[in-house]
Amino acid sequence: MTDLLLYYCRAPDNQLTIKGSLISVLVFTDDVEYMKSINIIGLDVRLYFVNSKEILWEVVSYESAQHSVKYTRRVDSEPQTDQRVDFYGLSLTVGYMEAPPYLSYSDGTFTGIQGEIFEMMKRGMNFTYRAIPSIDGNYGAMVNGGVENKRKTSKFNGLIGMLERSEIDIAVTDLSLTFSRSQVADFGGNIILQPTYCLIARPGNELQFFAYINTFNRNIWILVVVSAFALLLTIIIFSLITHFSDFKSKFLATRGWERCLLALSFALNCMTAKENFLLDYSRYTKAWKIIMFTFILLGYFTVEVFNAELTSNLTSKTIRLPINQMEDILETDHLLGLQDGSFFVTSLEFSSDANFQRLWNEKVKGQKYGLVSWNDEHMLLEAIKEKYVLVGYGEVALAFIGKYPCQVAKLAVEPMHPTQLGFYLPKGSPLVKYFRKQLQSIHEAGLVDTTEKNVLRTTQMNRKECTDESPKLGFQNTIFMFFCIGSGVILSILILILEMGHKYLI
Questions:
Q1: What does the longest C-alpha to C-alpha distance in the chain come to?
Q2: How many Å apart are CA 86 and CA 431, to the nearest integer?
Q3: Is residue 438 classed as helix, strand or coil in its secondary structure?
């Protein structure tokens, strides 16, 4: 049993102010108004009084940023554990940020998953509210140097910063529970879980000028060229020391640089051949057979593999990137776009992990679309086109994909586990326990699950699916072929003009 310390004193006639925490005050009086005038500063302070009829009463007070309510209730010998929370019309200042389908605000009422839950709590707990939007359009991320507003400074921006500076009583939107936020504000209880997605441009829409070359990586191309060059030198040597009736006669009748072109033409003819043909020759049969077979083999495998990979590369409608975790983005030419003011900004910018610091400094900080607003769809689409991996959250990200299914897709990798979504209140607010209790009752009644299913059913009906799954090639994939054809035509015309001019001069 813990020690109990009691103080006895005569209550003053004027207004009484009590400062402290975890204390209870008992006054013997019949003056209810006097009891309501007592000012209490501190946490978990209970105020009781006993009237002349020896009935125990409690003075209950609720305070918000702009309003306060006090009332008395009789304390029974056996307290009711399931007693409903009643704020007696307390007016709350609510900070919000619209994020359909989680939260929308119109005509003085919140809608969406969390909006409808909040309206249930308003009716159940008997309070009113005044809604004001996020001061800077952000959720709440830690900022170097802090944020100052009305001579008060907070570590965070957005709604969390407004809670820090005591500008609002509760933040209502799809706010995730994070350790950094919980240091400056209290979480009012989990409503739903929200996954995090990585979004990227859907393959097949971008202009692939080097699509024919990108089929093989650089090392494979180097090996193919070196092998072909070595075989070409071998053919040149063989042609000088053997009797090759057709090829050698042409070879010896040409000049030096033309001999190389003739040998190269012969080599390419061998490499692109799919059938084992041999020209007329009279000596060193075995050597010629082996070298030509080698050339044909090299060409056959190169062409066949190239054709297969090219077909797959040009017609593929799936994302094939070496990204299995967030750190893998460092090894690609993609950049990273984060929602401005989101918890992921804090996680990267102030992380002690070396890879996360590199991600922030190399892929986010100072980049054109390193910090984006998910309310600006044009900005998001531009970022997608410029090879950004966008980090999006829950139904907001899925709704964006559903609106542009042929332009946006999501990677299989999820940057983190699903996070808890809920309301935030000021740090140490006495209202936190009441909101948690009311939210628990709503959960137990099954109202959260029902609300979520009803809202998401409507949202999912509005999503589209990409029907452009045809394997036919588009211009964006074959532009290199047309470029080569055009270049060849232009080059041949130029050479014709030069030859005609040279002949005319002669």
A1: 132
A2: 11
A3: helix
